[in-house]
Structure prediction request, 212 residues.
Amino acid sequence: MKRYDHVIWDFNGTLLDDVMTGIRSVNTLLAERGLDVIESIERYRQVFRFPIIDYYRSLGFDFEKEPYEVLAPLWVELYLENVKTAELYGDVRQTLDFIRERGVSQSVLSATELCMLRGQLASLGITDYFEEIMGLDNIHAGSKLSLAYDWRERHPRDRVLLVGDTDHDVRTAQALHADCILICRGHQSREHLLTTGVPVASDLTAVREMAK
Prediction:
């Protein structure tokens, strides 16, 4: 790639098509508590947000009755069962190969807990594409910004492109002093992503175009 030394990938919703996985997992928790379930992908993309605790709150979970710290591991257990049927988006391997063939290094930076992230990448057979795999030290899916600041300190001169699917990826790119492109088939709607001010694309063709 002519413009970039390094590409940093978000994982969930960017490489892994796990939108329905997330919906099924949270709907189980909602139904068990007599709360309204998320009825469509469109609705899910409208309400999903970071930090995840705010997303849970918007769905009606009462943290006075059941703390987020109790709900989070329940969701993770459901997610790990449901994600067994989730796959990479169809253009992911082609794009990872395209970038690697041009001598550009790649990493993953995710709000997923690190051991869980490594396990998922290994099961999908794509670990070897990445120079670094960066995930959180807990399961609460908070901010990725500290990981971004740390990476930039270790790579002060690299020209970086971040590929993601949420507004939090834009904030992460800002922390990295990186360019950003959002793919609008993941966890937030195209309409919302267009408000962030960065390029929005429907698939990874746009990422490959930037490499020509």
Q: What stands out?
A: The chain has a mean pLDDT of 94.
